[in-house]
Amino acid sequence: MLKAVLVALIVLSVTPSARAFENIEADAAYNGPIKARIAREFAQGLTMLKAQAEHLNMPVREKDISALQRHMYAKARLIGQCTDDVVTAQKKAVRKLDAPRLVDRCVTSHMKFIEGINRKDKSVSTCATLSVDHNAMPPYEFLKLRMRTFGEEDYTALKKCVDSKPYQGLDRKLP
Which of 44, 75, 90, 114 is the most buried (most CB within 10 A)? Predict the structure, then answer.
Protein backbone atom coordinates (compact mmCIF):
# COMPACT_ATOMS: atom_id res chain seq x y z
CA MET A 1 0.00 0.00 0.00
CA LEU A 2 2.75 2.43 0.97
CA LYS A 3 4.63 1.55 -2.21
CA ALA A 4 1.54 2.37 -4.34
CA VAL A 5 1.11 5.73 -2.60
CA LEU A 6 4.78 6.60 -3.13
CA VAL A 7 4.59 5.66 -6.82
CA ALA A 8 1.45 7.80 -7.21
CA LEU A 9 3.13 10.77 -5.52
CA ILE A 10 6.19 10.45 -7.75
CA VAL A 11 4.07 10.24 -10.91
CA LEU A 12 1.99 13.25 -9.86
CA SER A 13 5.05 15.31 -8.99
CA VAL A 14 6.88 14.47 -12.23
CA THR A 15 3.98 14.60 -14.69
CA PRO A 16 3.67 18.25 -15.81
CA SER A 17 0.01 18.02 -16.79
CA ALA A 18 -0.88 16.76 -13.32
CA ARG A 19 0.01 20.13 -11.82
CA ALA A 20 -0.44 22.61 -14.63
CA PHE A 21 -4.10 23.60 -14.34
CA GLU A 22 -6.61 23.39 -11.51
CA ASN A 23 -9.14 21.42 -13.58
CA ILE A 24 -8.52 18.19 -15.46
CA GLU A 25 -10.76 19.49 -18.25
CA ALA A 26 -8.21 22.24 -18.98
CA ASP A 27 -5.38 19.67 -19.08
CA ALA A 28 -7.41 17.62 -21.55
CA ALA A 29 -8.11 20.70 -23.67
CA TYR A 30 -4.41 21.67 -23.64
CA ASN A 31 -3.44 18.22 -24.89
CA GLY A 32 -6.30 18.02 -27.42
CA PRO A 33 -8.16 20.87 -29.15
CA ILE A 34 -5.76 23.62 -28.02
CA LYS A 35 -2.80 21.64 -29.37
CA ALA A 36 -4.55 21.17 -32.74
CA ARG A 37 -5.38 24.90 -32.93
CA ILE A 38 -1.82 25.95 -32.06
CA ALA A 39 -0.40 23.49 -34.63
CA ARG A 40 -2.56 25.06 -37.37
CA GLU A 41 -1.70 28.63 -36.32
CA PHE A 42 2.01 27.79 -36.01
CA ALA A 43 2.07 26.29 -39.52
CA GLN A 44 0.25 29.35 -40.83
CA GLY A 45 2.77 31.63 -39.09
CA LEU A 46 5.71 29.75 -40.60
CA THR A 47 4.10 30.04 -44.04
CA MET A 48 3.71 33.79 -43.55
CA LEU A 49 7.33 34.19 -42.40
CA LYS A 50 8.52 32.25 -45.45
CA ALA A 51 6.39 34.35 -47.83
CA GLN A 52 7.66 37.57 -46.27
CA ALA A 53 11.28 36.43 -46.52
CA GLU A 54 10.84 35.34 -50.15
CA HIS A 55 9.28 38.71 -50.97
CA LEU A 56 12.37 40.41 -49.51
CA ASN A 57 14.75 37.93 -51.19
CA MET A 58 16.08 36.83 -47.80
CA PRO A 59 16.13 33.65 -45.78
CA VAL A 60 13.76 33.43 -42.81
CA ARG A 61 15.55 34.79 -39.77
CA GLU A 62 16.11 32.45 -36.85
CA LYS A 63 15.03 35.13 -34.37
CA ASP A 64 11.65 35.43 -36.15
CA ILE A 65 11.10 31.69 -35.93
CA SER A 66 12.11 31.75 -32.27
CA ALA A 67 9.72 34.63 -31.56
CA LEU A 68 6.89 32.74 -33.27
CA GLN A 69 7.67 29.60 -31.23
CA ARG A 70 7.60 31.52 -27.94
CA HIS A 71 4.41 33.38 -28.92
CA MET A 72 2.59 30.17 -29.85
CA TYR A 73 3.63 28.50 -26.60
CA ALA A 74 2.48 31.50 -24.57
CA LYS A 75 -0.80 31.56 -26.50
CA ALA A 76 -1.39 27.84 -25.87
CA ARG A 77 -0.82 28.36 -22.15
CA LEU A 78 -3.10 31.40 -22.19
CA ILE A 79 -5.91 29.47 -23.88
CA GLY A 80 -5.42 26.68 -21.34
CA GLN A 81 -5.53 29.11 -18.41
CA CYS A 82 -8.66 30.81 -19.79
CA THR A 83 -10.25 27.37 -20.24
CA ASP A 84 -9.30 26.52 -16.66
CA ASP A 85 -10.82 29.75 -15.34
CA VAL A 86 -14.06 29.19 -17.29
CA VAL A 87 -14.31 25.56 -16.09
CA THR A 88 -13.90 26.76 -12.50
CA ALA A 89 -16.59 29.43 -13.01
CA GLN A 90 -18.87 26.89 -14.65
CA LYS A 91 -18.55 24.53 -11.69
CA LYS A 92 -19.56 27.37 -9.34
CA ALA A 93 -22.33 28.79 -11.53
CA VAL A 94 -26.00 28.11 -10.99
CA ARG A 95 -26.81 28.33 -14.69
CA LYS A 96 -25.00 26.98 -17.75
CA LEU A 97 -22.33 29.32 -19.12
CA ASP A 98 -21.37 29.75 -22.77
CA ALA A 99 -17.86 28.34 -22.22
CA PRO A 100 -16.46 28.70 -25.77
CA ARG A 101 -17.52 32.36 -25.94
CA LEU A 102 -16.11 33.10 -22.48
CA VAL A 103 -12.78 31.42 -23.32
CA ASP A 104 -12.54 33.42 -26.58
CA ARG A 105 -13.28 36.68 -24.73
CA CYS A 106 -10.65 35.87 -22.10
CA VAL A 107 -8.01 35.08 -24.74
CA THR A 108 -8.86 38.18 -26.81
CA SER A 109 -8.71 40.42 -23.74
CA HIS A 110 -5.29 39.12 -22.68
CA MET A 111 -3.84 39.18 -26.21
CA LYS A 112 -4.91 42.83 -26.65
CA PHE A 113 -3.34 43.63 -23.29
CA ILE A 114 -0.03 41.89 -24.18
CA GLU A 115 0.13 43.61 -27.59
CA GLY A 116 -0.45 47.01 -26.01
CA ILE A 117 2.01 46.97 -23.12
CA ASN A 118 5.34 48.71 -23.09
CA ARG A 119 7.84 46.22 -21.72
CA LYS A 120 10.32 49.01 -20.97
CA ASP A 121 7.83 50.54 -18.52
CA LYS A 122 9.18 49.95 -15.00
CA SER A 123 5.82 48.74 -13.66
CA VAL A 124 5.42 46.20 -16.47
CA SER A 125 8.96 44.87 -16.07
CA THR A 126 8.39 44.52 -12.32
CA CYS A 127 5.17 42.58 -12.93
CA ALA A 128 6.84 40.44 -15.59
CA THR A 129 9.40 39.39 -12.99
CA LEU A 130 6.61 38.64 -10.48
CA SER A 131 4.44 36.70 -12.95
CA VAL A 132 6.71 33.82 -13.92
CA ASP A 133 5.01 30.42 -13.86
CA HIS A 134 7.37 27.69 -12.66
CA ASN A 135 4.75 24.94 -13.11
CA ALA A 136 3.97 25.71 -16.73
CA MET A 137 2.73 23.07 -19.14
CA PRO A 138 5.53 21.81 -21.38
CA PRO A 139 5.64 23.20 -24.92
CA TYR A 140 4.32 21.04 -27.74
CA GLU A 141 7.02 19.02 -29.49
CA PHE A 142 6.24 20.53 -32.90
CA LEU A 143 7.25 23.97 -31.58
CA LYS A 144 10.78 22.63 -30.96
CA LEU A 145 11.09 25.02 -28.05
CA ARG A 146 13.33 24.30 -25.10
CA MET A 147 11.86 25.12 -21.71
CA ARG A 148 13.65 27.68 -19.64
CA THR A 149 14.67 26.42 -16.26
CA PHE A 150 13.42 29.55 -14.50
CA GLY A 151 9.83 29.29 -15.72
CA GLU A 152 7.72 31.03 -18.33
CA GLU A 153 5.93 34.36 -18.21
CA ASP A 154 2.25 33.91 -17.42
CA TYR A 155 0.12 36.37 -19.44
CA THR A 156 -2.89 36.08 -17.12
CA ALA A 157 -0.75 36.72 -14.02
CA LEU A 158 1.00 39.62 -15.77
CA LYS A 159 -2.32 41.28 -16.61
CA LYS A 160 -3.64 40.78 -13.05
CA CYS A 161 -0.43 42.26 -11.66
CA VAL A 162 -0.48 45.34 -13.89
CA ASP A 163 -4.20 45.87 -13.22
CA SER A 164 -3.77 45.63 -9.43
CA LYS A 165 -0.64 47.84 -9.39
CA PRO A 166 1.20 46.15 -6.49
CA TYR A 167 4.40 47.72 -7.74
CA GLN A 168 3.32 51.27 -6.87
CA GLY A 169 5.87 52.80 -4.59
CA LEU A 170 8.56 50.23 -5.31
CA ASP A 171 10.67 52.84 -7.00
CA ARG A 172 10.56 55.21 -3.99
CA LYS A 173 13.76 55.64 -2.09
CA LEU A 174 13.72 54.17 1.38
CA PRO A 175 14.55 56.54 4.29
Answer: 75
* Pick from 85, 167, 107: nearest CA to 131: 167
For residues 57 and 37, what is the distance between their CA atoms, to the nearest angstrom?
30
**What are the beta bridge partners of residue 133?**
152
* Sequence-ordered alpha helix ranges (H) in 21-154: 24-31, 33-55, 62-92, 99-116, 122-130
The DSSP element (H or E) to which 132 belongs, if any, is strand 132-133
Predicted TM-score of the model (pTM): 0.73
| Surface-to-core class of residue 117, CB atoms within 10 Å of its CB (0-12 exposed, 13-18 middle, 19+ buried) | middle
**Distance from C-alpha of 85 to C-alpha of 106, rounded to nearest angstrom:** 9
Residue 140 near residue 71 (C-beta atoms within 8 A): no
Query: What residue spans of 93-152 are helical by DSSP H?
Result: 99-116, 122-130
pLDDT tens per residue, range 126-164: 777 666 666 677 788 888 876 654 455 677 777 877 777
129: nearest Cα among 108, 101, 106, 158: 158
